[in-house]
From TrEMBL:
SUPFAM superfamilies documented for this protein: Bet v1-like, GTPase activation domain, GAP
PANTHER family reported for this sequence: RHO-TYPE GTPASE ACTIVATING PROTEIN, STAR-RELATED LIPID TRANSFER PROTEIN 13
Any GO BP: actin cytoskeleton organization
Protein name as it appears in the record: Rho-GAP domain-containing protein
Record keyword Protein biosynthesis present: no
Any matching Pfam family: RhoGAP
Length: 406
């Protein structure tokens, strides 16, 4: 197990499990969940899940678990869904000879952190609890509930993450009120003050404001901690949508025009989740309606984006700019599973000498299916990871790469 664990620690992106023992990999998975500072099912909710399988009648357990899952943080819920669907796949392969109950017996203690002595427990309680050398009735009851519960969750993984109809109906009005709709090209023109406003003048105003903010050194942003040689900031936007506007910056080993082309036409070189794309309509030489799809780890949905985007390469001081915003466009069908909304996406690429550029991405996207807490805690770091990927796509081959004879 140690070698499998070490390979994941050293180079998680390059691990092959083809020649690994299934038992070693399973043991590593167990150890991973057992070593988490907080159980996957969360300290606050772990007892709730156990109580559902201890005290709630069987016919009501699915509903109760669905409700408990809605209380989980986004990241824990997504990991749980990924894991349960994977385990369900394992049980469906006859060759594995594993039922959901077999798997639950192995994994439940690690997922629920059962039988792990809590640090806050007093020595007297711990001594009493284990003095007899065997677990007490409460431990046995919790172990049974955890095992039966995990087996049930593996079996019902496809239904667990659905929102019960009555809860959806109760919250429907507030969702409709907060619903974000993409504007049409005409709508963008109406957002301009002047009567002759259209989508072109809207784009020009975006580019003008971006260049002005850059000239003023982006005043009024809140700085976050980030990786070395990167900047991450955010600010609140004064509209009805609570999502923050994020700004991530990094230096790239390429001139602005090359970086712009990498962002505009070569996303496959820096985004491993990039699945497919299509130019829906070319509006002019530097403006288009563009559709693309980003992948998610199964079983999570792919995200479909439909944006108006426009770019400039003739700005003062050799700067390049790309701006994008989601639009509605003649019933363009989905290529992915869920239509995400780009509220704002602006790339500013400034030359900084020696053929290098300063890349700044300003971003505000509703990916659909996440809480405000998830966006506030994690979305900025995803923006930072994106500009880092763009930077890395220009890195020269390492010493381990192919050699060239000169």
């Amino acid at each position: 197990t140690q070698s499998t664990w070490e390979m994941n620690e050293v180079s998680p992106e390059n691990v092959s499990y083809e020649d690994q023992s299934a038992y070693d990999v399973a043991d590593m998975v167990k150890q991973f969940f057992r070593d988490l500072p907080e159980p996957l099912l969360m300290s606050k909710l772990g007892e709730t899940f156990l109580h559902i399988y201890q005290y709630v009648p069987k016919e009501q357990q699915l509903r109760a678990v669905q409700a408990a899952i809605m209380l989980m943080s986004d990241e824990n819920r997504e990991v749980l869904q990924t894991l349960l669907c994977f385990l369900n796949d394992v049980t469906s392969v006859e060759e594995n000879q594993m039922t959901s109950m077999n798997i639950a017996v192995c994994l439940a203690p690690s997922l629920f952190h059962l039988n792990i002595i809590k640090k806050e427990s007093s020595p007297r309680v711990m001594q009493k609890k284990y003095a007899t050398g065997k677990p007490d009735q409460k431990d046995l009851s919790e172990n049974l509930a955890a095992t039966q519960g995990l087996a049930h969750m593996i079996t019902e993984c496809d239904r667990l993450f659905e929102i019960p109809h009555e809860i959806f109906c109760q919250s429907r009005n507030s969702y409709i009120e907060a619903e974000v709709h993409s504007p049409t090209l005409e709508d963008l023109g109406k957002q301009m003050d002047e009567e002759s406003g259209n989508y072109q003048t809207y784009i020009e105003s975006l580019i003008h404001n971006l260049c002005k903010d850059a000239k003023d050194k982006f005043k009024g942003w809140v700085t976050c901690s980030s990786m070395e040689n990167t900047d991450l900031c955010y600010k609140k936007v004064g509209d009805r949508n609570p999502l923050r506007l994020w700004k991530a910056s990094i230096e790239v080993e390429a001139p602005p025009s090359v970086v712009l082309n990498r962002v505009l036409r070569e996303r496959h070189l820096w985004d491993e989740d990039f699945l497919q794309w299509k130019i829906i309509e070319t509006l002019d030489k530097q403006t288009e309606i563009y559709q693309y799809v980003l992948n998610s780890m199964a079983p999570h949905p792919t995200r479909d984006f439909l944006v108006l985007r426009s770019w400039r390469t003739d700005l003062p001081k050799g700067m390049c700019v790309l701006v994008a915003i989601s639009v509605e466009h003649e019933e363009t069908p989905l290529m992915g599973d869920v239509r995400a909304i780009v509220l704002d996406s602006q790339y500013l690429i400034e030359p900084c000498g020696s053929g290098k550029s300063r890349l700044t991405h300003i971003c505000r996207i509703d990916l659909r299916g996440h809480s405000l807490d998830w966006y506030n805690k994690g979305f900025g770091h995803l923006c930072l990871a994106e500009v880092a990927n763009i930077q890395n796509s220009f890195q020269p081959l390492t010493a381990e790469g192919p050699e060239t004879k000169i």
